[in-house]
Amino acid sequence: MSTGSASFDAILARDEQDQARGLGVWGKEPPQPPLHCITFVTSNRPDLTDLVELATVGMMPVPGVGEVIALHDSEVTVAEVQTTYTRTDTGRTQIYTFVVVNELTPGQRALAKNRTIESRGDEATSDRVRVRVLLLVGDQAEIVADAADALKPARYRAADIAVAVGVSLAELPGLRLSAVVGRDGRLSGWQLI
Length: 193
Prior knowledge:
Blueprint: H1 6-20, E1 35-42, E2 50-57, E3 68-71, E4 74-87, E5 93-102, H2 106-113, E6 116-118, E7 126-137, E8 140-145, E9 154-157, H3 158-165, E10 176-181, E11 187-192
Parallel strand pairs: 1-5
Antiparallel strand pairs: 1-2, 3-4, 4-5, 6-7, 7-8, 7-10, 8-9, 10-11
């Protein structure tokens, strides 16, 4: 069967070979968790120096471009992500992810510096950050780190923010706020500062 695309035809041919050998979802053995390897490299050097290589049975979360992540307790920003999906000779799913990271920009560093840890006895801690409302786009508010060179705004429901801080929607653009950073990196717990 031809798709008219050399790339797609090659994918189909490999998958048909695996199927004929009884591999993958067509195998006689129950599926096993995938093998996943993530390699983090820096683009600061021409040879894309490996910083960290992690391998596991099962999927690891894959960061998105623009996210700030920590590698061995040092924060970096994700510049590029490439993932390859394949099978081993025994039919087990194998995933390779290649992540290019950069040092934080001054705006991202300022955001990290503005974080404060709020402890409430034995309760869980949370990170609060300072942010600024750039503008409204429909029912969404564009939020950025409260730093002169902050990049890449994130969008949140404007009505939720307005109610939390007790202002009208029209008053949101330009406001400086603090918010709690959740485990997923999303903000909540809006407060005026």
